[in-house]
Amino acid sequence: MIVVEFSTPDESSVRIKVSGHSGSAEKGQDVVCAAVSVLVQTLAGGLNNSLGAAVTGRLEPGDSDLVIRVDNNDRKALKLVCEVFRYGFQKIFESYPEHLKLN
Fold first, then answer.
1. Distance CA 103, CA 101 (A)
2. Which terminus of the chain faces fewer neighbouring Cβ atoms within 10 Å, N or C?
3. pTM of the model
4. What is the mean pLDDT of each run of 10 residues along the chain (103 residues)?
5. CATH number assigned to the domain comprising residue 63
6. H, E, C per residue of 25-56
C-alpha cells in the first residue's frame, strides 16, 4: 500500500511524504504507482519551475519526503496548487482504496 501524507507546515510551504508500493500490478505496469509518481513529480517540478519554489528532501521510488517552500508573495498560488493536487490524490484513493492511503 502507498501512504501519502500531505501537510502544510506553514502558509509558505507544503510537505509531501510518500512511502510504500501499491502492489496492484507488476513493476512497470502498476497504474496506481504511476499515477502517484506523476502527481508527486509534477507538484515538485511544477512549483519549482513556475514559482521558483525551493524543493528539498528526497524523491525515490517507494520513499519520498519533500518540503516545497515558496516566497511569501506566492502563498496563495501554493495553496491553490496544493488543493488541485490533493484532489488528484483523492481521486486515485476513491478508485483504488485498497492500494492507497491518504493522511
1. 7
2. C
3. 0.92
4. 94 96 89 96 96 96 95 96 96 97 94
5. 3.30.70.1490
6. CCCCCCHHHHHHHHHHHHHHHHHHHHHCCEEE
